[in-house]
Amino acid sequence: MEIKVKCNCGVENCSEWAILELQGVVESQPSIANQIRGLEIGRLCCSSSSSQVNYTFTVGYHELSGTKVSLKKPLLVLKKNKQEEGSVSNNEVDLEVIGIIRHKILFKNRPKAIISRPQVKDKKASD
Amino acid sequence: MATNKGDINDGGAESFLTLGPDNSVTVRYHPDFGPHSDLILLEVPDDSVLNDLLRGRVTIRGQFDEDAVLCTPSSTYAMKFVGTSNSVFLIPPGNPNLSDPQPNPLVSVLKLAPGNVELVLTAPRLDKLRFLLMQRLYKIDEEDEEDCSSEGLYTWHDLICSIQASDEELREGLKFLSAVEINGFWRIVHPKSVNMILTMVLTNSVLHDWSLDALVEEEVLSVLESDGFNTTIVKHCLETFGTKNENDNSKLWGLDKKRIAVHFAKQVLGSNGGKMRLEIFIEKWMRNVQKGTPFDLNMLEGEVLYETIGAETWIKAFSVADLPLTPDARFSVLFKERAKWAWKDLEPYVRDLRVPGISSEGLLIKYTRRVQPNADAEPIFSAR
């Protein structure tokens, strides 16, 4: 069986997707259950200090800090298409390249709990 | 909401990536957020593969009971899914504010990716090719026989769908097996038929006073065709045993005396396992080979093994071309044949092994045990 990997975008025009990556799991309040579509997850801010550009992602009462990373090996976004009835090929599936990811913003430090101001000892939230 | 995912243009990836200092953006779940199990992330190992993918030159090959491989025009990669325990939020391109106007900039995540597929460069899986093509060897008079079915016969397209190798590696594999395309099917010619045609060419060379270094293709083909031999097969014989020199406009072939000598050595010994006393072999071999052909036993490296039985030396057919291509199967067969090997005997039977990422020394370390009593002694290899 042979499945062709199609690409309609070509070398120049591949749409760029992105990734926000964090360690851990984002949970919603039990009352929301699965109705999360359209809901806000958090706020992403950017700041620069000396040579570095830092990102802060605030989710609920947690604050994560991270940086933008260029992927050494880019990721391609592939979509599996089910073949239409009566198509020429006898495969059931084909694959299409619909995007490329070259950068991600990665949060790998432990979240800081924002409890109150002024400064209190960081209560490390459980992972 | 976009119905075709190729057209999703409201994720905000660009705003996300170009977010500058002292700016901020809201990240939310896309209105269409979900598992989207039809979206797969594929890690691309280098620019060459990336180029092939973006130009649509890549295919995935395999049968349902095999692990899929990804093939570029020249290389084969195993596909391995690697999971992650991190939360990887996938953000599509485009501007969410267009379809869903908001006062503040917005980034929407479409899916949480469970991991991605990694590509690992791998040796093409060509042992199956020999197995398939051995099902029906081509014999010279087969067109006369009644069985005209195409069962057990494979076209190029059939092979692509069955063999997990890139086009280039598949072609090399066919060349290695001396396969030839006849009536659209790739065939291995039966050794008896090969011998018959080669002998005809050599006999006719003597009859017509042809020079074996400069056989005129047209002449050879027409003489043998009048004797009833298929021109495709005769041409294949010239390719198997000779090299073309394109001089002026006429196509000339020079036959390789070593290849011919090896062929007749194998004829004398019979197929794998055939053995005889060395003196008898040499006598028979000399009778078969053209006069004036310089030949010596070194030509038979990788084709024969020698055994000492009592006071006599025996020679036995054992061709590297008949052995498995994967290292573990190869070493298994080698150590079944002989428990211990001196390096000089072993080398011709392992020098063709290729595994991406492992050197030949690495293969020896992985699959053999090496014993060397002292610095002057020859190392001996046995099974691990």
UniProtKB/TrEMBL annotation, chain A:
One of its GO terms (cellular component) is Ctf18 RFC-like complex. GO terms for biological process: mitotic sister chromatid cohesion. It comes from the Eukaryota. This is Chromosome transmission fidelity protein 8. It comes from Rhynchospora pubera.
TrEMBL record, chain B:
Coiled coil: none annotated. GO terms for biological process: DNA replication; maintenance of mitotic sister chromatid cohesion. It holds the Pfam family Dcc1. It comes from the Eukaryota. Keywords: DNA replication. One of its GO terms (cellular component) is Ctf18 RFC-like complex. Belongs to the DCC1 family. This is Sister chromatid cohesion protein DCC1. It comes from Rhynchospora pubera.
